[in-house]
Each structure stands twice: as structure tokens, then as C-alpha cells.
């Protein structure tokens, strides 16, 4: 079995687990995210203390960032509501960025195909904003969004034919 199949199957399994056990999976994800941010905060404090002799301003900035990371990491540990809030805000930010980029592309691009991709980007932005809205409504929606995303991605990875890129490279030789 190839690596891409294993990754695809793991993504499908994780997607199903997240949708079957939404609150438990969000609890686990919030712990993982909290630990990650906590470790990053500790890293920044260590980095800041090592930079003291080189640049006091940079050192202080890193220590402040590290303290902020530790506080956010501790707050996020096991806190499903804050995890959902951050996921919702993330989706809103990405959605608005995609929407604005698509609108700008519609007015600045000359070729019809690139205008179509800009319109698609704007549509994806709107969909992402809607997903952000649902993510802020209830933790269940975050689980459904994450689960479906992992299922679709897992199926695409497991079923996808990524060997075509290698064939094109061989044509150039």
C-alpha cells in the first residue's frame, strides 16, 4: 500500500471519528491546539532569553509573545467554546480574504479563464464565511465541517492519481 493511500485512509477514519464523536474530538483537538500554542510560547520565551545579549528589544518582544502564547495555550486546553470561537474567526478571516481577492480579480484580470477563477474564489469566500457563521453557532457544526473536510480530502488523496506529474516530468527529458 502506498503512502498516499495510508494518508487517505487515516484522513477518512479521522473524519468519521470527528463526526461520530463531535464533542470528544473537539475536546481532544482543543487540547492538541492548546499544547501546541503552549510549546510555542515556551519556545519564544527561551528564544527571547537567548537574544538578550544581541537585541534587548527583540528579546522583550519574544518574551511578551511567549507569555501571551502560554496564556492562550492554557486557556485553550480542553476549552471547546474558545476552540470553536477561534475556528469560526479563522473561517471568517479566510472567507473575507478569498471574497475580496476574488472581487479584485474580477475587476483587474483580462483573460476570461482567470476571471472565472476569480469568480470561483469569490464564491469559495462566501461559502467559507457561511461555514464560519455555522462554526460560531454550535460546536457540532465545527465537527461536521472538519469531518466532511477530512472525508473529502481522504477520498481525494486515496483515489487521486498523483503519478501524472511524474509522467509530465519524463516528457520534458
Layout of helices and strands:
Elements: H1 3-20, H2 22-50, H3 56-76, H4 80-108, H5 112-137, H6 139-159, H7 164-172
Please characterize this protein's 3D structure.
The protein is an all-alpha fold and 173 residues long. It has one domain (3-158). Helix content is 88%, strand content 0%. The protein is built from 7 helices and no strands. Helix 1 (3-20) packs antiparallel against helix 6 (139-159). It is globular and about 55 Å long. The protein starts with a helix and ends with a helix. The model has no long low-confidence stretch (mean pLDDT 83).
Short description:
The protein has 173 residues and is mainly alpha-helical.
Largest sheet: none
Number of domains: 1
What portion of the residues fall into strands of 2 or more residues?
Answer: under 5%
SS summary, helix count: 7
Q: What is the N-to-C order of secondary-structure elements (H for helix, E for strand)?
A: HHHHHHH
The global form is globular
Helix-strand makeup class: mainly alpha
Cα Rg: 21 Å
Number of strands: 0
End-to-end Cα distance = 29 Å
Helical fraction: over 70%
Which spans of ≥5 residues are poorly predicted at pLDDT below 50?
none
- The residue-averaged pLDDT reads 83
Transmembrane segments: 5-21, 27-47, 59-83, 89-107, 119-136, 142-162
Organism: Methanobrevibacter arboriphilus JCM 13429 = DSM 1125
Keywords: Membrane, Transmembrane, Transmembrane helix
Protein name: Acid-resistance membrane protein
